[in-house]
Specification:
With 574 residues, the chain is an alpha+beta fold. The chain contains 15 helices and 22 strands. It has helices at residues 10-17, 63-78, 107-112, 161-174, 210-219, 295-302, 306-312, 359-380, 391-397, 400-407, 421-435, 475-482, 501-510, 514-517, 548-552; strands at 2-3, 52-59, 85-89, 103-104, 125-126, 129-135, 140-142, 157-158, 178-181, 185-187, 196-203, 230-239, 249-255, 264-270, 277-285, 316-326, 337-338, 341-343, 494-496, 523-527, 534-538, 558-560. A seven-stranded mixed beta sheet has the order 7-6-13-14-15-12-16. Strands 9-3-2-11-18-17 form a six-stranded mixed beta sheet. It has a three-stranded antiparallel beta sheet with strand order 4-8-5, with no helix packed on it. α2 (63-78) packs parallel to α4 and α8 (359-380) packs antiparallel against α9. Bound molecules: flavin-adenine dinucleotide (FAD) and iron/sulfur cluster. Iron/sulfur cluster binds at residues 494, 518-520, 522, 543-549, 560.
Length: 574
């Protein structure tokens, strides 16, 4: 795996713009589109890299990657073996790129650290109350959460996942994992010359990973499964008046402001962290059809519902962010292992969609990965490189992770019936509650999310209310709260395969949906100097690494690549 990218010194950055102008203004200047060997900007730049050997390399310091690394070192310690385990994380510190709900199941944590309470894991809020409701424009219809339904949260905890990940990082360091934050892994290679040589590389990049998507293509890992489907999750942290705060309460809603054919809903988690803090979030399925839909504006509008506004009124928003999450479930899982590597957590998509939970399955996959890697390395002996841990696939399929994902496999696709939201609720109430996933059929998804967008001429524009600055906010003041930053003189990490396509295809046919689905205002169509035509402007420094553009772009022309190391959001316990 090659790590990071070189800083582009100012002189090189300026050479970039002095090339002769092609007919379409040049937007993409990244080396992944303009190879360094043919690019005069890189002439004379020393490309020599440091390289190192490790036993196991983990890419990504989220729950899955850290669990894998910890478990490997636990096994090595028990077996009295030397095992060099390195973990690289693109954020400047562990947890800074983590955005989640999060209400977590402690099952895998109990397995990894039965003594997590003594180790002071930051699980401060046991769940005491579960609420679920359908919203109409003015009303709230409570729905009982029966025992056994996926939304039941008895025994779970509300956490700030970024803080939990930071704590996992401390445990990993204590046991001897080498952690390198601020290192983005930018290229996966199985040839000589790679920067970190590992006998096994564990890809734990989370949802829609940059390297993982390349591996899918290069190794054909998705040839047996359905396309992955996704949602975008937007989240804010609020400090609210203490009378509106009920630590341990979990609230979910579906319905308004989304129409019945758009999958999504909200969560409000009341944290017990000393201050009256709420995690307020909104999730929109990325299989939505109307290119005028704006997930950020839907979220802002949602907070004005009478039953939500009364909780937030008088409060203060202190943080904002967004991240994609997997929704394909078991139907969309790729092969997990290949010579030299394997996939854990949300990288392959081990997310329980109706529960909106993937932390426990990510951690369990990390435990299984570590167990199978450790056993295989012992069998193969120290000189074998590129070890194929195919036992991992079988072990994962024999675990409770598989049973759990299998049981809920039909819930998400059941929302595709003509009844939309109501079809999904009826399906869950009738089939899931009675049969618990034992029905002998498996429903299919309707194709990749980008293919679901309809042309603008066939859709109705949506008029969103102006933000009031108390409950709802504009995009730029929101992005400022994510703390995101990228060095301005690097080539934008939002790359286009074809610089002409945004105007010729996306703007012409879909009214430029990237202006709306990006939750950070990265994409803007602005007039050319002639004022007759438009061009796409990419404000890459705003990007919060949610990956939505890479997923939903109807032309599949946007390729999100890792930016210069350390760039991106600076979340504080999201
Ligand atoms: C809005 C929202 C709400 C959610 N709510 C819940 C919930 O209530 N309960 C629950 O259990 N789950 C919830 N989830 C899902 C949960 O967050 C994920 O399942 C979990 O974080 C997956 O862990 P992971 O380690 O696989 O990936 P991640 O947590 O995404 O971690 C991946 C890490 O890898 C790093 N990385 C990525 N690419 C590279 C690279 N190339 N080089 C170096 N580093 C890299 C990232 O910066 C990140 O730190 C929610 C998710 C969202 C988006
Ligand atoms: S540019 Fe893409 S990855 Fe970055 S915030 Fe916007 S949609 Fe998300």
């Amino acid at each position: 795996v090659r790590l990071g990218e070189l800083f582009l010194p100012g002189t090189i950055a300026s050479r970039l713009y002095s090339t002769s102008s092609p007919p379409v203004p040049r937007i993409t200047t990244h080396y992944s589109i303009h190879p360094r060997e043919k690019d005069p900007r890189w002439e004379g730049v020393n490309m020599e890299r440091f390289s190192d050997n490790v036993d196991v390399l983990v890419v990504g310091g989220g729950p899955a990657g850290l669990t894998t690394a910890i478990r490997l070192k636990q096994l090595a310690k028990q077996g009295g073996q030397e095992l060099r385990v390195c973990l690289v994380e693109k954020a400047s510190h562990l947890g800074a790129h983590i955005l989640s709900g999060a209400c977590i199941e402690p099952s895998a944590l109990n397995e990894l650290f039965p003594d997590w309470k003594e180790r002071k894991a930051p699980l401060h809020t046991p769940i005491t109350q579960d609420k679920f409701a359908i919203l109409t424009k003015k009303y709230r219809i409570p729905i009982p959460i029966l025992p056994g339904l996926p939304m039941n949260n008895h025994g779970n905890y509300i956490v700030r996942l970024g803080n939990f990940v930071r704590w996992l990082g401390e445990q990993a360091e204590d046991i001897g994992v080498e952690i390198y934050p601020g290192y983005a892994a930018s290229e996966a290679t199985f040839e000589r010359g790679m920067e970190l040589h590992a006998r096994v590389t564990v890809f734990a990049e989370g949802c829609h990973g940059h390297l993982t998507k390349q591996l899918y293509r290069r190794l054909n890992l998705r040839d047996q499964c359905q396309p992955q489907t996704y949602a975008i999750g937007l989240k804010e942290l609020w400090e609210v008046p203490s009378e509106n705060w009920h630590p341990g309460r979990v609230e979910h809603t579906v319905g308004w402001p989304l129409d019945r054919n758009t999958y999504g809903g909200s969560f409000i988690y009341h944290l017990n962290e000393g201050e009256p803090l709420l995690a307020v979030g909104f999730v929109v399925g990325l299989d939505y059809e109307n290119p005028y839909l704006n997930p950020f504006c839907e979220f802002q509008r949602f907070k004005h519902h009478p039953s939500i506004a009364c909780t937030l009124e008088g409060g203060k928003r202190i943080s904002y962010g967004a991240r994609a999450l997997n929704e394909g479930g078991i139907q969309s899982l790729p092969r997990f292992s290949f010579p030299g590597g394997l996939l854990v957590g949300c990288s392959p998509g081990l997310m329980n969609v109706p529960k909106i939970k993937g932390t426990h399955t990510a951690m369990k996959s990390g435990i299984i990965a570590a167990d199978t890697i450790y056993a295989k390395l012992a069998v193969e002996g120290p000189n074998v490189q590129g070890v194929h841990v195919d036992e991992y696939d079988e072990a994962l399929k024999s675990s409770w992770v598989w049973n759990e994902l299998y049981a809920v496999r039909n819930i998400r696709p059941s929302f595709h019936s003509p009844l939309g939201l109501y079809g999904g609720i009826i399906y869950t109430g009738v089939f899931y509650w009675i049969l618990r996933g034992k029905e002998p059929w498996t429903l299919r998804h309707k194709g990749p999310d980008h293919s679901r967008l309809r042309q603008a001429k066939d859709c109705t524009p949506i008029e969103y209310p102006r933000p009031d600055g108390r409950l709802s906010f504009d995009l730029l003041s929101s992005v400022a709260l994510s703390g995101t930053n990228h060095e301005h003189d690097q080539p934008p990490h939002l790359t286009l395969h074809d610089d002409a396509s945004p105007v010729q295809n996306n703007l012409a046919l879909y009214d430029g949906p990237e202006q709306r689905f990006c939750p950070a205002g990265v994409y803007e169509f602005v007039p050319l100097e002639s004022k007759k035509e438009m061009r796409l402007q990419i404000n890459a420094q705003n990007c919060v690494h949610c990956k939505t553009c890479d997923i939903k772009d109807p032309s599949q022309n946007i390729n999100w690549v890792v930016p210069e190391s350390g760039g991106g959001p600076a979340y504080n316990g999201m």
